Amino acid sequence: MSRPPIVILTALDLEYQAVREKLVDPQTHRHPQGTRFEVGRLADGRCQVALAHVGMGNQAAAVLAERAITEFAPAALLFVGVAGALYPHIALGDVVVATRVYAYHGGTSEDDGLKSRPRAWDISHAADQAARHLARDGSWKRRLPADGQSCEVRFAPIAAGEVVLNSKVSAHARWIREHYNDAQAVEMEGAGVAQAGHLNRSLPVVVVRGISDRADGTKEDTDRERWQQRAVANAAAFAVSLAEELAAEARDDARRTTTETRRPAMPETIRNVAKGNARVGVQAGTVYGGIRITPEPAPPADLAEALADFRTRLQRARAAGHLDDDTYTAAEAELAVADKTLETDTPQSRGTLTLALKKLRGLIGDVAELAAELAIIIGLAQGLS
Known about the structure:
By secondary structure, the chain is α/β, with parallel strands linked by helices. The protein has 2 domains: 6-251, Nucleoside phosphorylase domain (Rossmann fold, 3-Layer(aba) Sandwich), CATH 3.40.50.1580; 299-382. The protein is built from 11 helices and 12 strands. The chain has helices at 13-20, 58-72, 125-137, 171-179, 190-198, 219-224, 227-262, 303-319, 325-341, 347-364, 368-382; strands spanning 6-10, 23-30, 36-42, 48-53, 76-85, 95-103, 107-110, 113-116, 119-122, 153-160, 185-187, 205-213. The strands form 2 sheets. The protein has a 5-stranded mixed beta barrel with strand order 5-11-10-6-12, surrounded by 5 helices. A hairpin with a 5-residue loop joins strand 3 and strand 4. This is Purine phosphorylase. InterPro entries: Nucleoside_phosphorylase_d (IPR000845), Nucleoside_phosphorylase_sf (IPR035994).
């Protein structure tokens, strides 16, 4: 792979299928030890995803998460699935992004009872910021099923154990309530993947869970009402949008690092800008060849003008062979979405605009001149909110 993918792991077949439906042309990738991944890209973007089914439990999740990290060296690792709610204010179908994962089964047994020995892993700051921004702008909801219900994205700790919790009064329920009472959801794999990420130079790990039951003895009823399918569809919609965002940030970071590494001590080209009444001569180390002084280009008057100018530059880049036909076609499609959103001015349209421009950034990121101009356009778009 030319770029590091995002690894997405699931525990249940229905969770796996919910994510797989978001992939374009998935191809089987077989690990030497038999683990099968499917690798594809997300529609309308350049984010590659390596998807695997790990089964239930933290131990299996940890082993196969480590295997996936070694095999793909991903930019981030996401775990997507369903969970039980621990508080009544959390609605069925809501999405919970784990800000902290507790391994709640650790402890020591003494004469006066069981003492907690908690372990916990926090989400990385950058991944947390990306997820919260995505939740605020609402652009991820474009991926929700057409017949889906509205849901809320919540950021909270979760508890990961080794049993299915389906009671409010059991010993396990009391243990969580007494020792981990800020946890809002309970599941069985998050601690394993969080540990694997921690042991791999703090690889960004995000656990995204859809609430499918209330962990209160009614799980059979909610399962019959197909809340697992509804909840995981919501979680998958958010997770793949987050994967796209994290992949774009990883590309930006890689380009920035490459540019800084290759920057010479004295650049061959010196660009001096005079603004207002200031006058600048030539400031340079050693001058070879001629000197050309040009005025500072004026910024675009508005976003519509900037998009029109960018479209012209995009066409020139294609004609010059800097973009292949498929990339150009995908970029034009995102430009069309951006143009359409300018016809209205609502929070939802502004979110759609920002998402389209970010997808466009991922498509043309290898063409430095286009990427620089698009950064200005994204700044203009963000100034609308």
